[in-house]
Amino acid sequence: MKAAIYVRVSTQEQFKEGFSVPAQLERLKAFCQSQGWEVYKEYVEEGESAKDLNRTKLKQLLKDVKKGNFDIVLVYRLDRLTRSVMDLYELLRTFDEHKVAFRSATEVYDTSTAMGKLFLTLVAALAQWERENLGERVKFGMHQMIDEGKKPGGHSAYGYDFDNNFNCKIIEHEAAIVQHIFRWYCDGFGYRGIANRLNILLQSDKKYKPRLADEWNHNSIRDILMNDIYIGTYRWGEKVLENSHPALISVSLFKKAQKIMGERLKDRSRIGNFPLTGLLKCGNCNEYRMQGSFDKRDGKTYYRCLSCNKQTHDKNLLDAIINEINLLITSKDYFISKVSKQFEEKETINMPKIQKELEKVKTQRQKWYDIFMDDDNPIPKEELYDRINKLNEKEAELQEVLNEADIVDDESIEDKYARLSKLTNFRRHFEQADDFRKKELLFSLFEKIVMYREKGKFKPITLDYYLK
Fold first, then answer.
1. 252 among known catalytic residues
2. Beta strand pairing status for 311-313 and 461-467?
């Protein structure tokens, strides 16, 4: 009779007495010799858990089972093969279909009888119960540690150093980098653009090195931007502690980053070879969006309004935009006049009125809900359903306005100008950049650009815009 020896150790069991690979192999080979069996092959699984069947050596063993390469599968103990009742059923069914027996060297199982299979199933059920019960105890213990003000384990987030008692120390140079990352992102730079910036700085100063890698990448930037630990929130699974430690950034800056992230997921216009697509709107068509396209006939790029179909050569647009940027950079008075006007426009929103209207919508919706649930109401349920949906949409619109107002731009006009004035030689840098970088530069400066053009082929264009 040919026997397949299956050996498994998880990472935690590598050095446990009796569970090491050599110890299991020695016992199983001796068992085969005592039974007069020939060892067909040794399937050794190292560092693998028995929680499922997705194991390299086990898959090879099952392939050989189906080929009929051996007569019996031998393990040191049942839990070396599986700890799941459902997986055990699947394995035994496969063994039965191909006339392959199963045996444990340290436990007495006889899979040739119904009673033996029942006993084997009960043992596997107990093993699965113990594993799941252990998981629940560990989870409970972690939550208890948090309640007691202790850190449950794992490495500290970039910018912080938590000890076991949850005392928090801020790593100053890392905290400064976190703040740069959020500010750059809100200024319009993407994940890769920020990572490239940091990697350039890293070449001359090792303090810019990420903690767990040799250099920055888009994933590490995204993870930092999504992590609310930087506004003082600590999360462990479902456990959430607010204001548990010092924040590195303001709540308004974090909310602004999340809003931009959500908009970018929906707006794929930021991706492509046309720098103004996604920014440029047609002022003659109530700010309808304009899209870039390349005309092979004359080898030029145009931006066309998707409403009125009028198109403009990109050179005319970009020249006007770059001239405007140079004015903003070189003249502080001009910059302040532009930005101050935008601040005044934003302050015209009557927030108390919107909040009052929101409460009115909620009250009216509750009334429709009450009528909807009343079987004796005279209004058809389809009509009520439609009315409730319209109120839901209205509530979403009003809530969006409130959310926008909650994102406070805490950067002063002076700070905005100081940041913009650093863009010296903008035209040269812009012309030398590739299309992706040109787009990133423009998105870092503008929320939108609105183009107005009088009728006529050679009529001049005028621009209106909103700065970030």
1. no
2. unpaired
The full set of domain ranges for the chain reads 2-135, 167-266, 280-345+411-467, 352-406
Q: Is the pTM of this model over 0.85?
A: no
Q: Which of 17-26, 52-61, 112-121, 206-215 is predicted with the least confidence, judged by mean pLDDT?
A: 112-121
Q: What is the H or E stretch that residue 29 is in?
A: helix 21-35
pLDDT band at 17, cuts 50/70/90?
very low
The letter for the amino acid at 84 is S
Architecture of domain 2-135: 3-Layer(aba) Sandwich (3.40)
Task: Confirm if 421 and 324 have CB atoms less than 8 A apart.
Answer: no
For CA atoms 178, 180, 186, 190, the dihedral sign is negative
Closest CA to 414 of 345, 347, 464, 343: 343
Q: Where do runs of H (alpha helix) occur along 148-234?
A: 172-186, 191-202, 218-226
CATH superfamily of 167-266: Putative Large Serine Recombinase; Chain B, Domain 2 (3.90.1750.20)
Active-site residue, selected from the candidate residues 10, 49, 156, 307: 10
